[in-house]
Specification:
Blueprint lengths: L1 H25 L3 H27 L4 H30 L9
Length: 99
């Protein structure tokens, strides 16, 4: 059962990371790319970190480090995305014409 949960979480993380990477390459403007990159960090890394906790066990040193990184990602990623988008807007980076 533990292996199945590990594989499902790792697959979810891989799928979100892959879709975010494709989105970064395909999106037309900076603001859409920022959204794709924040999705990749949040929804790609968090399931992978939880998969690490499940795979190694909750009482391992990997678990405490992975959970600490997950909490920091939840705080830092949206903040960094907001700061990037605000700086781009303030400096006059144009939005895509189809937006």
């Amino acid at each position: 059962m533990k292996t199945i949960v590990f594989l499902v979480l790792a697959s979810i993380g891989l799928a979100f990371s892959l879709s975010g990477a494709v989105g970064i390459l395909r999106m037309p403007d900076l603001y859409s790319r920022i959204q794709c990159s924040s999705k990749t960090v949040t929804m790609g890394a968090l399931p992978a970190l939880v998969a690490l906790v499940v795979g190694e066990g909750i009482d391992s040193t990997y678990a405490s480090r992975a959970l600490l990184v997950a909490v920091l990602l939840l705080i830092v990623s949206p903040t960094a995305s907001h700061a990037l988008a605000r700086a781009a807007y303030k400096s006059g980076v144009p939005m895509w014409d189809g937006a």
